Amino acid sequence: MTLPVLQFGVPGGAEVLILLVMLFLSFVVPLVVSVLIYRDAKGRNSGHALAWAVGAFFGSLVVWILYYVVRDEVGSGRRA
User: Which of 29, 44, 50, 53 is the most buried (most CB within 10 A)?
Assistant: First the structure.
């Protein structure tokens, strides 16, 4: 009599990998966009560049759209 072959693997396997990728992306994408917004606001001589970057990281899509709409009014200068 032979024993049935049992599946062997890590508990959760692919699901855990997908979860880790989602968590990683949900941190990296806002971080990259925040850095881009900070650099753009600094280039426009905005006194609130850090506030825009922090807001973009924690506020995500709403702040990203808001910054895109008002970015010409954010700073007094434009990049050379």
Answer: 53
- Mapping DSSP onto H, E and C, the string for the chain reads CCCCCCCCCCCCHHHHHHHHHHHHHHHHHHHHHHHHHHHHHHHCCCCCHHHHHHHHHHHCHHHHHHHHHHHHHHCCCCCC
Residue 4: inside a domain: no
Number of domains making up the chain: 1
58/55 Cα distance (integer angstroms)? 5
CA dist 75 and 70 (Å) reads: 10
Q: Could you report the per-residue pLDDT of 19-66, keeping only the tens digit for each?
A: 889 999 899 999 999 999 999 999 988 888 999 999 999 987 888 889
Task: Provide the phi-psi class of 54: left if phi over 0, else alpha when psi is between -120 and 50, else beta.
Answer: alpha
